[in-house]
Amino acid sequence: MVSVSGILGYGYPEAALQAALARGVDMLGCDGGSSDPGPYYLGSGQPFVSLRAMKRDLRLMLRAAVAHRLPMLIGTCGGAGGEPHLQLVAQMVRDIAREEGLHFPMALIHSEQPKARIEAGRREGRIRPLGRMPPLAAATIERATRIVGLCGPEPYMRALDEGAQVVLGGRSSDPAPFAAHALRAQLPPAQAWYAGKMLECGAAPALPKGPDCLMVTVREDGVICEPMGERACTPLSVANHSLHENASPIRHVEPGGVLDTSDCRFEAVSPRATLVTGMRWQPAATYTVKLEAAERLGHRAVSFAGTRDPGLIGQLPGFLDRVRALVAEKARDLEIGPEAWRLTIHRYGLDGVMGAREPRRDAPGHEIGFLIDVVGEDAEIAAAVIALARTSMLHCDFPGRLCKEGNMAIPFSPSDLMAGEVYRFSMAHVIETEDPCALFPIEHERV
């Protein structure tokens, strides 16, 4: 199986894909998204990579899949896997097929969850929190802008069984599309899931770090990882990658069980390939699906400023306290209560004021850069408070101040930048289900 990239739209060398095809491939895949870039993309329905980059990656995959009659599976389409994200990628695939004269059966796996379904699961006691999340409340469900479930491999397997060649999934467990293909080939679940863990991030298990396609050969006793470009999967690099993105370095919880890697062995089988053996799969007593949701908090506005005034830097905490108090006072004058906005002042560091002209290259700590961040209930409040905050940063007095004019360097004009809607993740829970496909309707079409 071949993963072309860590995220669809991150790019990969076409030569690496051709090298894989020349070797012989049973499946092409790619993880299409992640929650790493934050809740905005799930809440807004927007992708976090450029459409141009996504279409380029898709075009090469589709050409290869059709020419070589390969199944092509993409999980978490469009970045966050909600319905707008899935439809975006589906339409892109249709457009490419029309432009290239390609024909194939396609399936869409829908992951966005109706609020009524989640509320029913809550009332029936089938939903429990993960980590430090509180128990799910009805109000949290109601406030959610978008709720998705992370599907396991079973919907991908069903879509392939029902005749699809190209399968586009909504939000999915990252290894699921790859694990699905290996499981469907009747390979052991431990090896299938471990292969998925390797493939979900493209060539991340290889050194040096960079864009490449990763080939993983799944055997009854283990998996072999090998990049297709000028990189190498070493025992150290593969073992290192197997630890990532998990609370435990050796127990990886998935929808239907736990992948246990505590006894894995890593053996170089060539200068560029590593064999991993010893993984185990522990089936879960109850099948669970993770739920993610985003809810809207308001609108964001930001401003950037920097200072290298040693008098100010020497008393920075007191200065910032005075700025916050001044902003609150001015906001009250505009009849904007403290519950309607939030001000955060991030402090950053070197050469942000004078850039290449900075003479004090050997004196860290001589300047401070500020990212002034305001979240307001609406765009008007955010714009009003960021203007107050930026002005206060410029002119707020402090003991010993020598500069009586603006005391900050501002790199942009306009100085206040509207950053749009703000969301937060409001669910990290699991829901129990007897049927792994019940939450994920599959839609077929001929492209």
Describe the protein.
The chain has helices at residues 14-23, 40-44, 51-67, 83-100, 115-123, 138-143, 154-161, 176-184, 189-199, 235-241, 310-313, 316-333, 379-395, and strands at residues 2-3, 28-31, 72-75, 105-109, 127-129, 146-149, 166-169, 214-218, 222-227, 251-254, 257-260, 265-270, 273-277, 280-283, 288-307, 341-348, 368-376, 416-432, 442-446. It has 447 residues and is α+β, with helices and mostly antiparallel strands. The chain has two domains: 2-111 and 150-284, no CATH class; 296-424, Alpha-Beta Plaits. The strands form three sheets. It has a ten-stranded mixed sheet with strand order 12-13-9-8-1-2-3-7-4-19, with helices on both faces. Strands 5, 6, 15, 16, 17 and 18 form a six-stranded antiparallel sheet that branches. Helix 7 crosses helix 8 (176-184) and helix 12 (316-333) packs across helix 13. The longest helix has 18 residues, at 83-100.
What is the element layout, followed by pairings?
Elements: E1 2-3, H1 14-23, E2 28-31, H2 40-44, H3 51-67, E3 72-75, H4 83-100, E4 105-109, H5 115-123, E5 127-129, H6 138-143, E6 146-149, H7 154-161, E7 166-169, H8 176-184, H9 189-199, E8 214-218, E9 222-227, H10 235-241, E10 251-254, E11 257-260, E12 265-270, E13 273-277, E14 280-283, E15 288-307, H11 310-313, H12 316-333, E16 341-348, E17 368-376, H13 379-395, E18 416-432, E19 442-446
Parallel strand pairs: 1-2, 2-3, 3-7, 4-7
Antiparallel strand pairs: 1-8, 4-19, 5-18, 6-15, 8-9, 9-13, 10-11, 11-14, 12-13, 15-17, 15-18, 16-17
Domain Acyclic terpene utilisation N-terminal: 87-203
Pfam families: AtuA
Protein name: Acyclic terpene utilisation N-terminal domain-containing protein
